[in-house]
From TrEMBL:
InterPro entries: RpiR-like_SIS, SIS_dom, SIS_dom_sf, SIS_GmhA/DiaA_subfam. It comes from the Bacteria. It comes from Algoriphagus sediminis. This is SIS domain-containing protein. Pfam families: SIS_2.
Amino acid sequence: MGTEDLNKAFLSSIYRKLELAANQKSIDEAGNIIAGSLEKNGWIYAFGTGHSHMMAEEIFYRAGGLARVRPILHPKLMLHEDASASTDLEREEGKAKDYLGGYQMTNKDVILIASNSGRNAVTIDLALLAKAKKGKIIALTSLNHSKSVESRHTSGLKLFQLADVVLDNFGEIGDTSITLQKSNIRTSPSSTIVGSFILNLVITKAIELLISKGLSPEVFQSSNLDSGGAHNENLINKYKSKVKGL
């Protein structure tokens, strides 16, 4: 398969997933949940392990993104310190409270949890913790993948089974989209591209809903706009003491 054919194959796969993702009823449902939380002065928590942590970063301190976002970005569950160790740690039960960094979720809050497989213990623990606090859970996952594997949590549950709303990224089992010719090697993962697209649709919907109710949602601008620096500084001054990493 030549370069042009590879590009077309990946584009075709991505386009189809984006099309399916954009037509999910759950995008509106998730937007409504987030808007409702913000109306009550709640917080939007965001979490993922491994590459899925990028989904939490995607909606944090982002041009066009909401200010009241608390990302749970624990270095040991990310990739920049010890990628292989993060794979082991995400399978350990009983650690979710440690990773919250002192935050106390309430029934006003929403947690968005990204996990392609939705099977690992930390992900399930955090969802169970949010459920105990009566917070809303939005799952970003691949139902194809998640339904094909067993849970790694003693409860036997997977993320999509605990969520109030499930956002399906329509990923293949194993995430990759293309099998290379004359090989059994699969490549071209789709979860980051499609996941970012879905989350921005959800955030945009939430902002639109708040505006339609006559409210003024707090939204970051690009710091590289002439107006962005002062605008963002006001939000940073307001929330820096309340949001770890801001």
